[in-house]
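Good day; I would like, with your permission, to put a structural problem before you. I would ask you to consider whether the tokens describe a fold that such a sequence might reasonably adopt. The full record is reproduced below for your convenience:
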Amino acid sequence: MRNPHPLDVATALEATGPGRLQGQTRADYGNMTGFFGGYVTACLLRAVLEQPRLQDVPIAMTVNFCAPLAEGRFDASVREVRTGRSTQHWLAEISQSSGTAATASIVCGAHRAVWSRQTARIPSAPPYESVPVHAPFARSGWFQQYEMRFIEGAPDFSSPNGDAERSARSTLWLRDAGERPLDHLSLSAMADAFVIRAFVARGKLVPASTVTMTTYFHGTREEIAAQGTRPLLCTADANVFKDGFADQTAQLWGRDGRLLATSNQIVWYKE
């Protein structure tokens, strides 16, 4: 039997009671301070996915990052808010002895064969194999869990003073460094696997962290599963940096030009 993927190990949860679970952080998804936001997001989503009353699949989730998740054990709580004919609403929370680390609102829904149209168009890009792998700017933690091949907008910290402003847009091929078939869990983490746009635009690292993030899942369960271990073509950008807060947007494209997910977040930065 193949060894489980690091994401599955790191997000493993043990039920401790109705709507109560417990997990253990793993260094594989450590960040410069605390843990990678996409990892926290995946833990919250998994807590809901493991509920016996779950219906259908996630279509949207909003995560509020209240405090860094510290190394060690953490508690997760889940509550079904309301289940209707078309959607099911959940609230989830991760906490430690220091208090709440993150909260989430997760909406699930059933995909039906009704009128549909995708107006967004996948960006043009050279083949995945022709783009070199980008060396991560940090050699530990979650940076090692993803393979990134930048077509444009690779992080560049070569300017000694970080004073050469650049475009905030990046286009890249993205996949798990260790092969893992795509599903909602990994897609939720990948939606946050983009360098903070302030770093890209300014060419230097500054204190920054995501405050809140919303991910929309557009692919059906079958469309996401059909992606397999193929890389996603992704874009990340920002519209405004102002007074210590900036937005960040992303699109994650799958095979045959299908838009599988989009995300929006607000990032706090200092300097």
